[in-house]
Amino acid sequence: MENKLKKYSKNKNIRKIILIVLIVIGAIFGFLKYREAQRYETTDDAQLETDMSSVSPRVSGYIAEVRFTDNQQVKKGDTLVVLDNRDLKIKVEQAEAALENAAAILETTKVNALSVQQGGSTSIFKIEELKIRLANAQKEFERGKNMLAKGSITPQQFDKVQTDKEALEKQIETAIQSQKESNSKTVAANEQIKVAESNVKQRQIDLDFAKLQLSYSVITAPFDGITSKRNAVPGQLMQTGQPLCSVVATQNTWVVANFKETQLNEMKAGMNVEVEVDAFPGKKIHGILDSFASATGSKFSLIPPDNATGNFVKVVQRIPVKITLDKNNELYKDLKPGMSAYVKVKTRE
Question: Greater confidence, 149 or 111?
Fold first, then answer.
């Protein structure tokens, strides 16, 4: 009986020691967590993000060739898909022919305008010649008039001199009227040149547009990255804007951590951040707090909450915070957008 009491007493002491040890360990753990909470702000509501672009054709057409596969590394400008562009080439040829025709019309219009202008110049010379002849005829008329008064010539001879002068006056009037008409034709011809030049410009724009549409038949990667969600098969009809695939950038990955609004009091841009990705437990990557979102996450939702409806319930909101990562870390190249992460921001030394 005495042995049993000793054994029970011994076991009781052991349990007490274990309990004390557990309490001490718990106290130490709690103290360390408290100290950490004083120096760090943490959250596990964080995901990796990167640039992603949906690749779509700008023109509709049948796929002639597909030059990529799912999860393929591509460089900016690499050809992904080639559309059947025979109809687009025909449109380019039509635009080229229209441009050549417009250019030929412009040259013809310029030649006609030059001819009209030269005709106007000839009229000016003719008027000057008639004016000189009229001046001589005027002198003859004055002499004839004096000679007729003296009886040196007959009235018939004087009538001929007078008729010659009046005929030249009429010719000058006709030439001046012709000159005015020529000037009007010159103005009209110059206007026709402007119209023809405008037509050439329009045909050039049509050709540039046709060539641009033709260039859209070759679909390229918008930036360096990895292709995903391939939706392209040779012979498939693609409409404008229909997704062919997505390209996920591999050169720039960051973290968006959603901190509670009550955690932001001491957080500032430029603070050091420790990031642990769930996919790589035990491995950490250094980051820098880059910036804060301009509004809470709920404000960017499809149907943001309206607290003025009479059924208000206060909920602590979260603010998205962008964190840039150390690209020299060996873990960086293995990061994928969408991965979950645990973030620890150092707010105090």
Answer: 111
